[in-house]
Design a protein that fits this description.
Layout: H1 2-11, H2 23-26, H3 43-54, E1 67-70, E2 73-76, H4 85-97, E3 101-105, H5 111-119, E4 124-129, H6 132-141, E5 149-151, E6 165-171, H7 182-193, E7 194-201, H8 209-218, E8 228-234, E9 240-247, E10 254-255, H9 260-263
Parallel strand pairs: 3-4, 3-6, 4-5, 6-7
Antiparallel strand pairs: 1-2, 7-9, 8-9, 8-10
Length: 266
């Protein structure tokens, strides 16, 4: 862990209420890693099959000139399979927020990092994943990402030696963390890594994400002084909300006032 933290550092130069949320801490119950949706030791096989399925209908890795930003929209230029609506919305949102440094948590096969590097090359990108096999897959698919990816379990206690960036995002990651309070630790760590925005593209029924983030903020478990919530819609998916943005400053997106705005869209 010390070696990993040193690498990360070099990359970028309480009273508890609702104790039932922290049952395994107060009751000293052992944590069973199988409580998560996946056994992370074998997840790579499942993930590779997911990629094979998605690429039948959507482009996973872009080539130069296939997509371009026009009037703040990501538009397909060439006759290729479309990006998945969630992926397009994610890239467009990051483009609109104009971060200088970005971290992806749970970077999987690295395709989002590859695409962001192609679409917005001025952004300094990095990706973390807890699985060595997943990181090997990143280099297999995109060798140019070498040096931009590192092994890190986001459910571990936070280290002050980790870098601070403008924006941290996840794409279908926190929704799978079900062991104990692992997803709460992960959410807290996202906000400790980001100074401006945390962008979540998740299954909104897997956890009460809005309530959980508010709870962490109210208990002093997030470092931000202010917290604003927004959402963005995917026109390809009946204009339903498919992405949540938590920000330390006011934004121009649609405000997220009730979690039903997300859950009802599922």
């Amino acid at each position: 862990m010390k070696r990993v933290i040193n690498k990360l550092f070099n990359r970028f130069g309480l009273e508890i209420q609702r104790k039932h949320r922290f049952a395994h801490v107060f009751e000293n119950k052992p944590i069973n890693a199988q409580d998560d949706d996946f056994n992370w030791e074998t997840y790579n096989d499942h993930y590779r099959q997911e990629l094979r399925d998605i690429q039948k209908t959507h482009t996973l890795k872009l080539n130069p000139g296939e997509y371009s930003f026009e009037n703040d929209k990501l538009v397909k230029i060439k006759d290729v399979l479309p990006l998945h609506p969630n992926h397009r919305l994610l890239y467009e949102t990051i483009f609109l927020l104009k971060p200088l440094k970005v971290i992806e948590i749970g970077c999987g096969g690295g395709d989002h990092l590859f695409n962001l590097n192609l679409l917005i090359p001025k952004i300094e990108i990095a990706g973390y994943d807890r699985s060595t096999e997943q990181l090997n897959l990143v280099l297999e698919r995109s060798p140019n990402l070498k040096g931009k990816i590192l092994e890190l379990d986001i459910t571990m206690p936070f280290s002050s030696k980790l870098p601070l960036v403008d924006l941290v995002y996840t794409q279908a990651v926190i929704m799978h963390i079900k062991t104990g309070n692992g997803h709460l630790v992960a959410l807290s760590n996202l906000f400790k890594l980001a100074s401006k925005q945390v962008v979540l593209m998740e299954n909104w029924t897997s956890h009460p994400f809005l309530d959980d983030v508010k709870f962490l903020f109210e208990q002093g478990m997030l470092p931000w002084k202010q917290l604003y919530f927004y959402f963005r819609r995917a026109p390809e998916l009946q204009n339903k909300p498919h992405l949540m943005v938590a920000s330390s400053e006011p934004l121009f997106f649609e405000p997220l006032n009730s979690y039903s705005q997300l859950v009802d869209s599922m």
